[in-house]
Design brief:
The protein is an alpha+beta fold and 251 residues long. Helices cover 34% and strands 31% of the residues. A hairpin with a 4-residue loop joins strand 4 and strand 5. The chain is globular.
Length: 251
Amino acid sequence: MRAFFVGRSYYRTMREFAFTLQFDAGEDPLTDCFATHEDASSQALVCALSDDRLWGLEQVSGPVDALGDIKPLLLDPARGFESISETPCEATWSHDLLDDRRNQCTVYSLVEGTERCHTVPSLANRYLPLGTLCRVRRHGRCQHWRVLTSNERRVGLLFETLHEKLRAGVTFRFDHLMDATWAGEILLSATLPANQQAALESAIEHGYYETPRDVTLDELAATLGLPRSTLSYRLRKAEARLAKEYADNTP
């Protein structure tokens, strides 16, 4: 981590610890629901307020029938906050439905009593500085976590604890530890429909946008198991939407 002073302000190069959790069928009702509705996904930001309190803001996008199944689970306090271990998180959970549209909803949650919980945000708070921000994207049976922190010295301890606490049926995959690159991405990615976002992320991951390209459209379509025309349509729609948002928000 690099740090420097400007006047009275203290600037740091933030670091990002990224990993993926994959859940077997039957391990988590909400994950099972996302797996059933492959065109649905969600983006969430979670941050600890103290050793025993945290807040979260989650936006779900998808078809009407998907939201009809996902939203009741997302809002149900009886589901419990999301422990990754065999020990349930016995915290108090309240929430507010901030936005409820045909294809999208946004939920604010406040969770209290998390000091003994084995959740990703509460474990991150034990080892990393207060104010560490977690971002998670749900799609299918996976949760893609990105932990933004000002100090990476104890990320190794968090990594080891996550491995140690994981219950059977949940798999951990390390993705990267690098300088954080979140500028503009949080809001833009959440505006795309799930299938367009998945296509765009896969295209980036496989080098479709590199110069020269690492993969052709036909090869990418075959890898994803999609017709070439379907993949082309999703990428063009995603590119057009992001380009318009960029133009609308550029002075």
